[in-house]
Design brief:
Elements: H1 10-13, E1 19-22, E2 27-30, E3 48-50, E4 52-56, H2 57-95, H3 100-133
Antiparallel strand pairs: 1-2, 1-3, 3-4
Protein name: PTTG protein
Keywords: Glycoprotein, Membrane, Signal, Transmembrane, Transmembrane helix
Subcellular location: Membrane
Length: about 150
């Protein structure tokens, strides 16, 4: 029971982690776990101590807010820097220097074009061979037959 440490010292009260020390009234009481912060009618924030005697809730809230705000600002700055780097990298690669994906895509297009040309030439030679076999081959000069 925390009330047995009332009017003693803060250190004795806070040996039990469920206790809250109120420095202004020198009372030791159960920490109100249903609320995050102890209500003002129980103990003022500047007088409330929990965990350690040298930090009051008011200073703890201010310190946590400053640390949290600093962390959020740093996180925002880092995100902005990363976004700006990506954007500038894309502008450089989009302008004069192609990036690796563009180069790879260009190589693939060129390979497909070469294969298509080879297939086209192969089909033309096959068709020409069939035309020659059946006498359907169109000669360049239609009067060449009659010259002999």
């Amino acid at each position: 029971d925390c009330r047995q440490y009332t009017n003693r010292s803060c250190e004795e009260c806070l040996k039990n982690v469920t206790c809250l020390w109120c420095a202004s009234s020198r009372k030791c009481m159960e920490y109100p776990v249903q609320r995050i912060l102890p209500p003002a009618d129980l103990c003022e924030l500047r007088s409330a101590r929990w965990g350690v005697c040298w930090v009051n809730f008011e200073a703890l809230i201010i310190a946590m807010s400053v640390v949290g705000g600093t962390f959020l600002i740093m996180l925002g700055v880092c995100c902005c820097c990363c976004c700006c780097k990506k954007k500038s990298k894309k502008q450089v690669s989009g302008g004069s220097l192609p990036d690796k994906d563009d180069e790879r895509a260009a190589r693939e297009r060129e390979k497909r074009r070469v294969r298509q040309e080879e297939r086209r030439a192969e089909m033309k030679s096959r068709h020409d061979e069939i035309r020659r076999k059946y006498g359907l081959f169109k000669e360049e000069n239609p009067y060449a037959k009659f010259e002999n």
